[in-house]
Amino acid sequence: MTNCLIRSPRFVVLSGVSTLLILLGTVTAQGATYYVATTGSDSNAGTSASPWRNPQKCAFSPIKAGDTCIVRTGTYTDSNGDGYVVFVYANRSPSGTASLPITIKSEKPLGAAIIAPSNRNGFGFIVQRPYYIIEGFDISGANNSSSSGAGIGISLQSTATGTIVRSNSIHHIGRASCTNSSSTFSGVQIRGASGAMIERNRIYAIGRRIKGESGCSATNTRHDHGIYIAGGSNITVRRNVIYDSYRGYPIHVYGGTATNLNIYHNTLSGRNPTGSPVAQILLASTIRTANIKNNMSNDAPYGMVWAVGVSAAGVTVSYNMSNTVTNAMAPLGKSASGVAFSNNFDKTSNLGLVSKSTNDFRLASGSAAINRGTTSGVPPVSDGAPDIAAYEYSVQNNLSSPLTPTGLRSL
To answer: Could you tell me if residue 390 is inside a domain?
Structure first.
């Protein structure tokens, strides 16, 4: 455990009437679009023909609610030495709204690479204003080996209400670091934000080197997490693939109070060779209502969920599938008040993953996870019967699921 840091209008023609009527409904005005490119300049107008140079410009005027800032293919890092590639400031940056969010996205999925700096505790993105969408980036870096070294791919602070983190590849955060720092290297961090949505991301190779790895002698190997939730309300974590994030927990809920937490349709894989941590989801601190459903756990040490030091009420863990067990406390004869486990599929030998050795976690034909999920408390799927995993077998080759690069191995 650690403490740290358009819809378009639709028209109908009335019979015998030459008038077009707008079918009333929610109509979202389309905002302006700005551009960033490695060939640009921050003194430019930010147009397609005259782009800005640094994605930090996406967090300042003339950006306003409803606008989109498109970052073209290339590599981007800290432009002014402050430790951030993009900082959405609480007192300087514009806010989006629920109907008019501000979108910062890679023009080509994973084409824009964000390298968090390593000369100090580095962040790819830090968001302190409401209703932003961060989409489609390749995010890595933050290799700080100092005694207080730390780094985060995307951090959502308490004022980042309604922010969405979608379809990013977040990887190798701190993976070249060797430090006994008690601070964290994490893929995504949520610190008290409400209404956050973390969806369809691929998060892997998170955390510092462990003892004996590339000559590292550090022994502090439990502080680095795939997704770190330190309080907040109405948070949803769905359809993410998280693997090689065992220098801590793939999903770590610790600090503050988490209310109405939803974790579903994620695929989690891997274990630390030291055997610690003992699970892939940690539930700790204070949790008031949580639904943990339709997740797949592959090769967890003791099991998928470990609840320790938690004051819990209304936490339901059901319809998850594991090739070990869902309740990591069960083998030790332990339990946690307020955390109920039911209808989980434990010790399932046929998870049916396409290729674990190449980190392709799509479902193969015949997987035991197909059509085994629950429809209770989770959005419906096209065939009416949800699968247990990040990928829905019938649609898993499109972007309704996480991006599916294959042949990737962690370094």
So the answer is: yes
- Under the banding of pLDDT at 50, 70 and 90, the label for residue 407 is very low
What is the number of structural domains in the chain? Answer: 1
What separation, in Å, do the N-terminal and C-terminal C-alpha atoms of the chain show? 25
For residue 158, is it within any domain? yes
Measured CA to CA, the distance from residue 101 to residue 279 in angstroms comes to 36
The string of pLDDT tens digits covering residues 285-313 is: 999 999 999 999 999 999 999 999 999 99
Predicted TM-score (pTM) of the model is: 0.90
Boundaries of domain holding 220: 68-395
